[in-house]
UniProtKB/TrEMBL annotation:
Molecular function in Gene Ontology: alpha-amylase activity
Domain Glycosyl hydrolase family 13 catalytic: 14-429
Alphabetical GO biological process terms: oligosaccharide catabolic process
InterPro entries for this protein: GH, GH13_cat_dom, Glyco_hydro_b, O16G_dom_2
Protein name in the entry: Alpha-glucosidase
Native source organism of the sequence: Leuconostoc litchii
Keywords carried by this UniProt record: Glycosidase, Hydrolase
Transmembrane segments: none
Family: Belongs to the glycosyl hydrolase 13 family.
Statement: the UniProt record of this protein carries the keyword Zinc: no
Length: 576
């Protein structure tokens, strides 16, 4: 049996630094703000903090355009502040992982500035990026940017185009150049000497581009080809990650997780194989990409909530895919996704608390490493007060709005605003809601992105004062994960006859000693079900305050614990 790794029992707390806590009242969160809130994070009980990018940046894309990988964004603080954050986190038993963004850099990075200076072959930095001559007087191929528009920008002095799968200020690095790879590996080892505990790797599945850069398929009504269809999992991506593992990752007791677009289960096992030759785990996006509108494909403009059947099928698929072969990352939300309870649950005043707890329990009892995005432990929601495009800051949302309205893909700009109110990345980036004071206690200055008005009802102070809050429910879940081996090593199995249930998600986790049965109601309806549970089972955790055992109530979740060799009997009640 493979030796258990420390990160298999860990829980990760993701921080978007600009929106967490402002310490100097300039309206932008910073490193000292995080330092000031470390005791809050420790109280929650997590093991690891994942920091979204804190490097020097022009901040075109929320810090994912890095101009210096070995310096700190001065708006967020100094390297001395980071050193203090790392030291104090470690003193509290909290590990720190950084965001590694090396599919592309900022156009202000020294490498690109030297690359763009001349196309002379003697300029080694020209080959640090992907430059191509025009084809028939236009872009080298039909690729579109993930942030709208073409994926190529012309550099008029040289007469060549450079590739950028994202914003034009984010030129793609040429990973086929060994000098690029070694420069990246040297930088990673520099951070290792600093004492960090690992990396989350941004769009790492895109680093190896297909040979010849062929045209991509064009979807209906689109002007450009979708490069995601042919760039993900490129021809040499595993070779490059194995080289990274050999020269960097295997040298440290780190936790590594790759953000991987365009992922299949078979391909995923190569990235996160249990042999440890590449990464420890990865983020796949299937379960967060579903839309409840059966007539809408991924990426189309629909606001229908995902169906439980789709979510369930995806979770079951990925739990089985990694069983004994790899390790999963468990998440509902992050800095790029809608708020958990708004998209997957019910954020109405009546059911928000129950729904958020139900979703939390369902996720945290799966096999894998759970990720909590800042504010999720409070039940923070999408900002329904976003009414005009001027309120948005996210480059992806702004580009999508203007391109869509100009191309008249939707009947009106209002339709696009309705879509963004549900799906914009700004929903996850509104400032953390600490208390009922000015700007939710985030800053005394007007924040860079407006605070969700519901902070008067949803905030950390209220949560910490309420023993029945979502915060303390998360705390219990984290504690159970640390204590119960079955959550780490137990086999996952969907309960019999639950496959086609569009209201209840019921599954078990089983090892040689004990079994857990998780029953979660995804609806606002009271339901009747029958499940086999031993009479001597223990109700381990639930989100209602009383054990009413006749039916399954709205958004109810119950977790039963019993010895694996117990004799199961059908419960006499209707709930299961």
């Amino acid at each position: 049996m493979q030796k258990e790794k420390w990160w298999q029992k860990a829980v990760v707390y993701q921080i978007y630094p600009k929106s967490f806590q402002d310490s100097d009242n300039d309206g932008i969160g910073d490193l000292r703000g995080i330092i000031n809130r470390l005791k809050y994070i420790k109280k929650l009980g997590v093991d690891v903090i994942w920091l979204n990018p804190i490097y020097k940046t022009p901040d075109i894309d929320g810090g994912y355009d890095i101009s210096d990988y070995q310096d700190i964004n001065p708006i967020l603080g100094t390297m001395s502040d980071f050193d203090e954050l790392l030291k104090k986190s470690h003193a509290l038993g909290l590990k720190i992982i950084m965001d590694l963004v090396v599919n592309h850099s900022s156009s202000e990075h020294e490498w690109f500035q030297k690359s763009i200076a001349t196309k002379n072959p003697a300029n080694k930095y020209r080959d640090y990026y992907i430059w191509r001559d025009p084809v028939h007087g236009h872009e080298p191929n039909n690729w579109g940017s993930f942030f709208s528009g073409p994926a190529w920008t012309l550099d008029e002095p040289s007469g060549q185009y450079y590739l950028h799968l994202f914003a034009k200020e984010q030129p793609d690095l040429n990973w086929d150049n060994p000098d690029v790879r070694n420069s990246v590996f040297d930088m990673m080892n520099w951070w290792a000497i600093k004492g960090i505990d690992g990396f989350r790797m941004d769009v790492i599945s895109l680093i190896s581009k297909p040979d010849g850069l062929p045209d991509a398929p064009v979807e209906e009504n689109d002007l450009y080809g979708n490069p995601g269809k042919i760039v993900s999992n490129g021809p040499r991506v595993h070779k490059y990650l194995q080289e990274m593992n050999h020269k960097v990752l295997s040298q440290h007791s780190w936790m590594t997780v790759g953000e991987t677009t365009g992922m299949t289960a078979d391909e995923a096992k190569k990235y996160a194989n249990i042999d440890g030759s590449e990464l420890d785990m990865l983020f796949q996006f299937e379960h967060v990409g579903y839309d409840g509108n059966a007539n809408a494909s991924l990426g189309q403009f629909s606001g229908y909530k995902p169906r439980l059947k789709d979510i369930k099928d995806s979770i079951v698929k990925w739990e089985k895919a990694f069983d004994g072969t790899g390790w999963a990352s468990l998440y509902w939300s992050n800095h790029d996704q809608p708020r958990t309870v708004s998209w997957f649950g019910d954020n109405s005043p009546q059911y928000l608390n129950l729904s958020a707890k139900m979703l939390a329990a369902l996720l945290h009892f799966l096999q894998g490493t759970p990720y909590i995005y800042q504010g999720e432990e409070l039940g923070m929601t999408n900002n329904e007060n976003f009414k005009t495009i001027s309120q948005y800051r996210d480059v992806e949302s702004l580009n999508l709005y203007y391109q869509t309205v100009q191309q008249k893909k939707l009947s009106s700009s209002k339709d696009m605003l309705d879509y963004l109110r549900i799906h914009s990345r700004d929903n996850a980036r509104t400032p953390m809601q600490w208390d009922t004071s000015e700007n939710a206690g985030f800053s005394k200055h007007e924040p860079w992105l407006e605070v969700n008005p519901n902070y008067y009802q949803l905030n950390a102070k209220e949560a910490l004062d309420n023993p029945n809050s979502i915060f303390y429910f998360y705390q219990k879940l984290i504690s159970l994960r640390h204590k119960l081996p079955v959550i780490t090593d137990g086999k996952f199995k969907l309960v019999k006859n639950n496959e086609n249930d569009n209201q209840i998600f019921a599954y078990t986790r089983t090892n040689l000693d004990e079994t857990l049965l998780i029953i979660a109601n995804f609806t606002a309806n009271t339901l009747e079900r029958h499940y086999s549970v031993p009479k001597n089972s223990k109700l381990l955790i639930q989100n209602y305050h009383d054990d009413q055992s006749t039916k399954i109530r709205p958004y109810e979740v119950k977790v039963y614990q019993y010895a694996t060799n117990s004799v199961s009997e059908k419960m006499s009640n209707k709930e299961g």
